[in-house]
Amino acid sequence: MTMLELRNLSLSRAGVPVLGGIDLRLGAGEFVGLLGPNGAGKTTLLRAALGLLPAQGHSSLAALSARERARAAAYMPQGREIAWPMPVEALVALGRIAHPHSAGAADRAAIERAMTALHLAPLRHRRATELSGGEQARTLIARALAQETPLLIADEPIAGLDPAAQIEVMRLFGQIAGQGRTVLASLHDLGLAARHCTRLVMLHRGRIAADGPPEQVLTAENLARVFGITAHLAQGPDGLLFQPLGTIGHDESL
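Above: the chain sequence. Below: its structure as tokens.
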């Protein structure tokens, strides 16, 4: 089952191409890591796929109405600052707005599942504005999880989290995919992406440079061409192990 389809998706700003001819199809049960250096177009791609930015081409999500889209995909943007002095539980409950009768037993159960998954139950009555940056990030992830959509799109969801929380969130996303849903997350930590994602999509200058299983995407050639780095790659018991070693100049001939 296709959860997201992009065909020839392109976007320009002030006449400068930002995305060029993106073709991408995500199926049920995939945990897809969207990789690329700063400025590669990751956030632009996620927002254009959701219909939040005007783009040329086709996005199966952008073609939906706002309510249909909210039931099809949950979105966690890159921004982490919470401006509303409301209790954590109430903020997580905002993820249920798209569902009719969002005050029933099913909604309360979804909210509780999301808070439990992110270890927020002890903070349920705390004002979200009083939380640490990492706690706010977990609260926003929980809000997206409470939406319980077939597709979860997250823009740098583990940024600002401590290492243990990063691993827990990546494992949680893997579990969600294992239940038949789909996760698309932009990530900067290539090591965690290599170990936890079932598929990686690497962007370079607004175009897809590589797409496939981690071991096929995180090759020496792709890492040199796109990121300008060398790295050690090895197959471990829990997946691909990745360790950056050094930087190199971007050689356009690669």
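The mean pLDDT is 90.
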